[in-house]
């Protein structure tokens, strides 16, 4: 059942979704989907899912959540990270994977916009071929434009505290978007937004520094020896991400490092590795692709099968989302505009970031580091929460702490103090401040890249406390 509301201004549209294929009965939360046009002539049509807070929607924060990639659909967050629903693996209903409620959904404490950005991500599309291409700066500016237009179209959220949030590669654009929203208020753009800060999980921030930190992380967790770590550090002058290919000793060291971590899952070092060989940093002679354990790109689990098997490949679970999102009835329920998306993709590989490339066919990586934007925000009345799974080798917490330290903030109440969830140590926190700016950095014990996917209860409790201005 759909209730469709067309807005006369612009090409925005809103749909209240009452039911979804795969879930029995009416949804027990308020779900809205829609499009907002941004950019020149609004040629970029950004698709969103909006879930009103299940707590106190009139007062709870309004947050926008951005997936990584870039180019990964935010449905991943909706199902696997912080959303109100989960997929019941192996169960089907309405000819699609069955859905169930997520007890750790962040929608219990916040109004959340899950945005498919940049363009050609998820269900987002363009009306002109020229608008197909995006970049870090353009994506950030378009998302800031989206936020102002969203609040214009939803004026009842004008007074709610607003935060820009997301994970992984979105760490590049989150501080840019946040600064742009503050700046827009300064310039008198309407409506005036109640922007109060930002949050980033496992955030890629300083591309060179974050990737360089993989070597130190691999040593800290005993994946490479001290001798190899020290030799590589010395021979490469502590620069591995952009190592000089003419420095043969450095290249040889990097080859040795890559051989030792080739079978490690870079996103969660304790998970089985189901993908081609891991290279921590660039190599002249990269380790050749091993045979992937995911021989079948769609390896579904039948309703009668057990989830217990020899090799657990987390990526197999994502295939359920792909099946669900490409179902014709699902697209109708979400009111996806007919003919705009031929195939929903978990991630648009024509945008996905590779550290050795300046661009991809549809995306230019034109921000090498967003630390300067964090620095600008330290002069704002602004709150920040940065969290990292401590088993993430993709964007290691050691690199994240390095750029945070470069902001020259003062450590306040906590300095690597444990915080607890259900009586157990859930990670470690450090609190910083500078005038009216505050930042909390927290590790999530046992979590990998996209920390809420691995430790949902701990991450939910962490943000619940932070939103409420309580110590995490």
UniProtKB/TrEMBL annotation:
<dbReference type="InterPro" id="IPR001563">
    <property type="entry name" value="Peptidase_S10"/>
</dbReference>
<dbReference type="InterPro" id="IPR029058">
    <property type="entry name" value="AB_hydrolase_fold"/>
</dbReference>
<dbReference type="InterPro" id="IPR033124">
    <property type="entry name" value="Ser_caboxypep_his_AS"/>
</dbReference>
<keyword id="KW-0325">Glycoprotein</keyword>
<keyword id="KW-0645">Protease</keyword>
<keyword id="KW-0121">Carboxypeptidase</keyword>
<dbReference type="GO" id="GO:0019748">
    <property type="term" value="P:secondary metabolic process"/>
</dbReference>
<dbReference type="GO" id="GO:0006508">
    <property type="term" value="P:proteolysis"/>
</dbReference>
<comment type="similarity">
    <text>Belongs to the peptidase S10 family.</text>
</comment>
<dbReference type="GO" id="GO:0004185">
    <property type="term" value="F:serine-type carboxypeptidase activity"/>
</dbReference>
<keyword id="KW-0378">Hydrolase</keyword>
<dbReference type="Pfam" id="PF00450">
    <property type="entry name" value="Peptidase_S10"/>
</dbReference>
<protein>
    <recommendedName>
        <fullName>Peptidase S10, serine carboxypeptidase, Alpha/Beta hydrolase fold protein</fullName>
    </recommendedName>
</protein>
<dbReference type="GO" id="GO:0016747">
    <property type="term" value="F:acyltransferase activity, transferring groups other than amino-acyl groups"/>
</dbReference>
């Amino acid at each position: 059942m759909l209730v469709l509301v067309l807005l006369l201004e612009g090409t925005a549209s809103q749909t209240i979704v009452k039911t979804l294929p795969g879930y029995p009965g009416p949804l027990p939360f308020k779900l809205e989907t829609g499009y907002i046009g941004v950019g020149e002539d609004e040629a970029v049509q950004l698709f969103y899912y909006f879930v009103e807070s299940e707590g106190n929607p009139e007062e709870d924060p309004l947050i926008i959540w951005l997936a990584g990639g870039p180019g990964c659909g935010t449905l991943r967050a909706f199902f696997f990270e912080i959303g109100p629903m989960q997929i019941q693996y192996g169960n089907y209903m309405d000819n699609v994977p069955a859905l169930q409620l997520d007890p750790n959904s962040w929608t219990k404490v916040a109004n959340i916009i899950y945005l498919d950005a940049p363009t050609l991500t998820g269900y987002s599309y363009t009306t002109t071929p020229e608008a197909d291409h995006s970049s870090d700066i353009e994506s950030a500016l378009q998302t800031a434009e989206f936020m102002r237009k969203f609040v214009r179209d939803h004026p009842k959220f004008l007074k709610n505290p607003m935060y820009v949030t997301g994970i992984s590669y979105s760490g590049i654009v989150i501080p840019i978007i946040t600064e742009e929203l503050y700046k827009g208020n300064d310039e008198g753009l309407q409506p005036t937004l109640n922007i109060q800060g930002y949050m980033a999980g496992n955030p890629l921030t300083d591309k060179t520094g974050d990737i360089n930190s993989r070597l130190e992380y691999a040593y800290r967790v005993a994946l490479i020896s001290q001798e190899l770590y020290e030799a590589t550090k010395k021979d490469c002058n502590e620069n591995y991400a952009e190592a000089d290919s003419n420095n043969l000793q450095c290249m040889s060291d990097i080859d040795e490092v890559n051989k030792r971590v080739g079978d490690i899952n870079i996103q969660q070092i304790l998970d089985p590795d189901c993908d081609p060989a891991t290279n921590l940093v660039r190599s002249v002679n990269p380790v050749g692709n091993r045979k992937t354990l995911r021989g079948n790109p769609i390896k579904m689990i039948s309703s009668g099968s057990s989830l217990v098997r020899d090799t657990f490949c987390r990526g197999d679970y994502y295939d359920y989302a792909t099946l669900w999102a490409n179902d014709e009835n699902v697209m109708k329920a979400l009111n996806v505009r007919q003919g705009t998306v031929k195939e929903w993709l978990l991630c648009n590989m024509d945008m996905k970031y590779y550290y050795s490339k300046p661009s991809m066919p549809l995306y230019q990586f034109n921000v090498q580091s967003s630390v300067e934007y964090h620095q600008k925000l330290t002069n704002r009345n602004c709150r920040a929460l940065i969290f990292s799974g401590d088993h993430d080798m993709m964007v290691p917490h050691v690199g994240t702490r390095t750029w945070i330290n470069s902001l020259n903030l003062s450590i306040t109440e906590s300095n690597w103090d444990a915080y607890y969830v259900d009586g157990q140590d859930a990670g470690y926190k450090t609190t910083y401040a500078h005038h009216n700016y505050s930042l909390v950095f927290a590790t999530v014990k046992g979590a990998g890249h996209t920390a809420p996917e691995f430790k949902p209860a701990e991450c939910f409790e962490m943000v619940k406390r932070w939103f409420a201005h309580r110590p995490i």
